[in-house]
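Lest this sound abstract, we let one protein speak, letters for residues, whole numbers for local backbone shapes, and leave readers to judge:
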Amino acid sequence: MRNNREDVEVGQSNDDRSDEIAEPLIGRQHKTTPPTTEEDQDQEDESKRKSYDDRGSLWMVLLSTFIAVAGSFEFGSCVGYSAPTQSEITDDLGLSLAEYSVFGSIGNIGAMVGAVTSGRVADFIGRKGAMRVSSVFCIAGWLAVYFSKGAVSLDIGRVCTGYGMGVFSYVVPVFIAEIAPKNLRGALATMNQLMIVGGVSVTFIIGTLVSWRTLALIGIIPCIILLLGLFLIPESPRWLAKVGRQKDFEDALRKLRGRDSDISEEASEILDYIETLRFLPKANLFDLFQRRYLYPVIVGVGLMVFQQFGGINGICFYVSHIFEAAGFPSNIGTIIYACIQFPITGFGALLIDRAGRRPLLFVSASGLFVGCVLLSTSFYMKVHEISLGSVPILALIGIMVYIASFSMGMGAVPWVIMSEVFPINIKGIGGSLVTLVNWSGSWVVSFTFNFLMSWSSYGTFGLYALVNLLAILFVSKLVPETKGRTLEEIQASMNIS
């Protein structure tokens, strides 16, 4: 990008490298004289169309995304495992409720550790390498669960799968954002959340049909698909450029954009930006709070705070209890809840590159606010014995509005924006911080939900409504629109001088 090249003297070596990539295709990208005939104009138009509409490149991008989101599906499988297996595991192994509660929640501890190390791991061994490490941890964890004879091995297995979840939650959206063309980046990155939801739902359903040990073995399948599939797809070109693997960078970008596509402009933009970052010192946690990085940190961390403290994991983990407390049949309510998540998340994926990130966040946060207000109202009516016959249906509507709104925007879009706003020199440490905040918030909300409900049922949802109201204000004032812009354009616009 021109601004970056003017801000930092990149030297002759960078120009030579950019020209080396551009040379075979430079004639099509930079015309010094206009076409002299209509036939020449048609040929140039056809060349441009080929550059941006290459079927081979689209196929490779889609294949790479499909393989990467196997990690997201694994993430969902780990999250959903404890719900359908509780009674069977406690009976088979003689666990107390407290021991099983530790098993169900200790995965968050592993995920926090995974979040802290995810950025460094992905920066050191690459995005594909980080996904391999996550898969190995998850496989080890599932095997520990399968062979468990008591609480200790169960907990060790859960911590291992939790670590894999923590790394997956960072590296998958980052990998997708770095390989996707700008016009498809939002929709493809949303596939991360879609497959997490799919993993949770499928695990919940299968868990009612098979034993808990068999379900643990089934959890290994997405890891096997991911490990084998990674041999078929290229590494992130931006990571390859960052570590100086010039030939691999060029090869990976050509695979993703098509063998006959003109990659000179995109390659030059990436290399210019990487070269600019080479003059900056190696980032550490304290560097994130420098003035130039403060804006992306506020946006990334802020969205995760509002995503979690808006109450999602309290409602998600205890939805059956909420239905029972409101007087609605919990089995019917839970089935409706599970069925609505996947299609609404898919609908959001279709809209994200059409409507944009900000409109989806506005609609989503507004719907979360309305859903919480409805839930708070229903429990207020129950406590004060006002129109008790309306309480169950009002609670059902509130939960459906809440989960539909979350699935459309606040579930996926914060992860998409997180993968877009951090410059590559701080993406590792920045992504680790954001992911750690997310998992910490998840633990706090799920741990405190029952205490809040015992304090005041309608007050609990009133607090969540307030948080979601603040989220609307946060989005309106601070969150940028990133639709249709390259990562380099987004990050340059957020750099505070």
Summary: Residues 107-146 form the longest helix (40 residues). The radius of gyration is 24 Å. The chain has a mean pLDDT of 82.
